[in-house]
Structures are given as structure tokens and as C-alpha cells.
Amino acid sequence: MEFTYTAYRGLLSLLRQGGYVFTDYHDYQAHPRCVILRHDIDNSLPQALRLAEIEADEGVKSTWFVLLRTDFYNPASALAQKMLRRIRELGHEIGLHFDEMAYSGEDGIEPCANFSIEEHIRYEADVLADICGCPITAVSMHRPSKATLEADLEIPGMVNSYGQTFFHDFKYLSDSRRRWREPVEDIIRGGEHDRLHILTHAFWYHEQDQDITESVGAFIRSANAERYEQMMENITDLPSILPKGEL
User: Fold this and answer.
1) pLDDT at 246
2) Whole-number pLDDT of residue 105
3) Quick count: other Cβ atoms within 10 Å of Cβ 28?
4) Contacts of 69 (CB under 8 A, 6+ apart)
5) I need a labelling partner for 157 at 20 to 30 A (CA). Which of 65, 101, 122, 243 fits?
6) 93 touches 138 (CB < 8 A)
7) Residues 6 or more apart from 203 whose CB is under 8 A from it?
8) What are the tens digits of pLDDT across the range 66-103?
9) CA quadruple 236, 241, 243, 247: dihedral positive or negative?
10) Burial of 39 (0-12, 13-18, 19+ CB in 10 A)
11) How far is C-alpha 27 from the chain's CA centre?
């Protein structure tokens, strides 16, 4: 499968042809044959919004998990908040992408102010809810440790996408590191599994197929242009100081 928007539309079409109903973590039980589409926003909010728009155009809903503590984007910025609320307006769910390493020391999760990991998750969910203007009722783990995966965490008022239900009762498929570990299209066509749980990362998808080196390189290089535009809003007559062509 190519990592293009056209190929992704094809994936959605295959799921429809296979009789799968697009559900979420809350209403899947009403459908004996269903698929949960999950997206972890690890790097780029603009790319997330682009894929969310494609899904909405296809009449599909999914769940988008947002990192609250990351160096790549600030969910609370005016522009990020606008994009996140737009994703919500398109009919998708916003969830929390929780990075346990943000709280970890040498021995793993620290008892920060005597908080448990569940309490850290609940706190971040409340902050994200305020930013997005909607309840946050689902969480996915960012690069979870073995201990966290095995813990089968239960968070009051939230669904854990890494809970045993979504890994035992569903067929789990992921494009992590721009590589499907199993032939996702063949599995859908085969129709053996009535419940699918599919994780994709919008970061890998483009108009034209790019390999992993091209994707990562383009993202890194784009940082200069993005920072320049941000500085334009904060420094008067920035081009007189540094013409954009000199980046």
C-alpha cells in the first residue's frame, strides 16, 4: 500500500466493501462487523487535519489522539486550537495521546505529587478538553512501556485504546514507522476478522508517495519556513533583518 491520500481513500473503500461499519471506542458493541480508525498525532497537526478532511469527505469518522506534552506542536496555541476544533467539527473524536516518559525518571513513572499514572492521564485529559472545547473520553499511549501495556489501565470516565478488549477482541493493524507489519489490504479483503482496530499516522501520507527518508527530511526542513512565519508575527519588518530567501 502506498502512503498517499488516494491509497488511503482506497483503504476506506475496501473497508466499506467488506461490510465494516466505522465506529469508535464507545459504540462498537452495537455493530457485529466494525472497524475503529485511530490516529496518533505525533508530529504534524496540519497533516492530521488534511487526513481528517479526507475522512469526512468519505463519510467516515475516526478518533484523533493529541499529545499535550510534545516539542513538535503546542495544542494550546491559537492556530493549533483552531485545527483541533475543526477536526472535531468534521465529526471526529478527539482523544488524549499520553506520553508516560514525560513523567518518568530512571525508575519509570515518578510519584509526582503522589499522583498515579491514571491521575496524570485524567489531568491531561481535562486540560485538553478545555483546549478543544469537548469532553476527552479516550486515551492512547505514546510509545508505551511493557509495564504500561500489561497493566491494562482503567481510567475513570475514559476508554483505554490499549486495553485488552481492543487487542484481543479486535484484529489490530498499525502503520507505525511507515510500515504495515501485516498486509492490511489483504486482511480486509480476506474478511476473516469481524472487528478491526486500525492505527494510522497522518504524518506518513502525502499527495505523492514518499519513502521514510523523504517524509522525515521534508518535515525537518519545513521547520525553517514555519518558524519564519511565526517570527513575522512578532518582529516588525523581519525581511529587512533576514530575507526569507536566506533561510
Assistant:
1) 77
2) 60
3) 20
4) 99, 102, 124
5) 101
6) yes
7) 42, 43, 44, 47, 215, 219
8) 999 999 999 999 999 999 999 999 999 999 999 998 88
9) negative
10) buried
11) 19
Q: What are phi and psi of 171, to 5 degrees?
A: -85, 115
For the chain, where are the alpha helices, taking DSSP H only?
A: 5-17, 45-57, 78-89, 117-132, 146-151, 184-190, 212-232, 238-241
Query: In whole angstroms, what is the distance from residue 164 CA to residue 161 CA?
Result: 8
Q: Is 143 helix (H, G, I), strand (E, B) or coil?
A: coil
CA distances from 189 to 14, 101, 143, 182, 193 (A): 7, 38, 29, 13, 10
Calpha distance 154→226 (Å, rounded): 39
Cβ atoms of 53 and 91 within 8 Å: the answer is: no
pLDDT under 70 in the chain at which residues? 105-115
- pTM > 0.70: yes
Please, what is the average pLDDT of the chain? 92
Assess contact for 10 and 22: CB atoms under 8 A. no
Which residues have a Cβ under 8 Å from the Cβ of 5 and sit 6 or more positions away? 50, 51, 54, 205, 206, 207
Residues in the chain: 247
Question: Which class for 179: exposed (0-12), middle (13-18), buried (19 or more C-beta within 10 A)?
Answer: exposed
- HSE-up (13 A, CA, CB side) for residue 166: 26
